[in-house]
Amino acid sequence: MEQITTLSPVALGFLGSLAAGLMTAVGATPVLLGKTPSRKWRDISLGFAAGVMLAASFFSLIIPALDAAEGRYGDGAIPALIVCAAILMGMGAVAMMNEMIPHEHFSSGREGPEAVSLRRVWLFIIAITIHNAPEGLAVGVAFGADGFTGGFPVALGIGLQNAPEGLAVAVALLGERYSAGRAFGIAALTGLVEPVTGFLGAAVIVVAQPLLPWGLAFAAGAMLYVISHEIIPETHRSGHQKQATTGLAIGLVVMLFLDVWLG
């Protein structure tokens, strides 16, 4: 553990987001064993993932962003304006990717421009990549901002919520008549965008410290968009909204506890 804590923030950002991304494969493992949880339990687990992301957005990203902005600009309206603007920019960036990049959700259909030449599975992979990129960014920015202490709770939380997402991806692919092995492989690959954005997020923050509050809040905004646009609607689609909300509440308090305890 001591050797890990002495690594540079950029290296920590890459390794932390890689570990979190690999949890997608861990979550998809049941399909290899021929076991798939019921839709209700999948919705509960995705609700848990939403709660973890929600807590991480506020307690691990937005509040540190405000602290960083106040440390640079003092008390007053400017820190709040910076964080508010960066949150909206993060949400807008993911929304723009949704509009400009062709992709498809198995449950809600195609979004973005038409792309007849792309096979359906690639459209689905692109959709999950858009979804996972902000999570890797959040981990990288957190490590870049405060090293191991700041990044570890975020990486742990994102890893926890990646597991049910990996299972959801693999089960959706099984429903499209993909073999268990191929469904697992594709689900595992979708998590590998996270170390890319994690590395970039950590590098930018380390090189340009004045961007710290912007980067933290931008990553939070990107995750908030994914929570609202993707995860919560998916958990309510099959009539399990009460159970999914319970999962969200548990995920939120678990991430809050981890952030306070480990941070």
TrEMBL record:
GO terms for cellular component: plasma membrane. It is a multi-pass membrane protein. The chain crosses the membrane at residues 12-33, 45-66, 78-101, 121-145, 151-174, 186-208, 214-232, 244-262. InterPro entries: ZIP. It comes from the Bacteria. Keywords: Cell membrane, Membrane, Transmembrane, Transmembrane helix, Zinc. GO terms for molecular function: zinc ion transmembrane transporter activity. Pfam families: Zip (PF02535). It is found in: Cell membrane. Belongs to the ZIP transporter (TC 2.A.5) family. This is ZIP family zinc transporter. It comes from Salipiger aestuarii.
